[in-house]
Specification:
By secondary structure, this protein is of the alpha+beta class. It has 2 helices and 3 strands.
């Protein structure tokens, strides 16, 4: 499922993610489009936390609170689409 976040008032936080869901559980998350300032280490750490917790209620990445929240919004959009199927 593809999820988008339009960045709110901070357009440089626009992102697009792909969330894989199997048997009602998130199994993988990949970034498809991201702001230039996000590293693979950042997204990997965040996405691993979401998959492990099976929740969007995870700790923000230190020093990147707004970027974390923006990515979580993209994931949330993908999971809402998964629920509708």
């Amino acid at each position: 499922y593809i999820g988008d976040y339009e960045g709110g008032m901070y357009k440089w936080r626009i992102n697009k993610v792909q969330a894989s869901v199997s048997s009602g559980k998130v199994t993988d998350i990949k970034i498809l489009e991201k702001p230039a300032n996000l590293s693979p280490e950042f997204t990997g750490k965040l996405f691993d936390s979401v998959v492990k917790a099976q929740s969007l209620q995870v700790d923000t990445v230190s020093g990147a609170t707004l970027d974390t929240r923006a990515c979580l919004k993209g994931i949330e959009d993908a999971l809402i689409k998964a629920e509708r199927k």
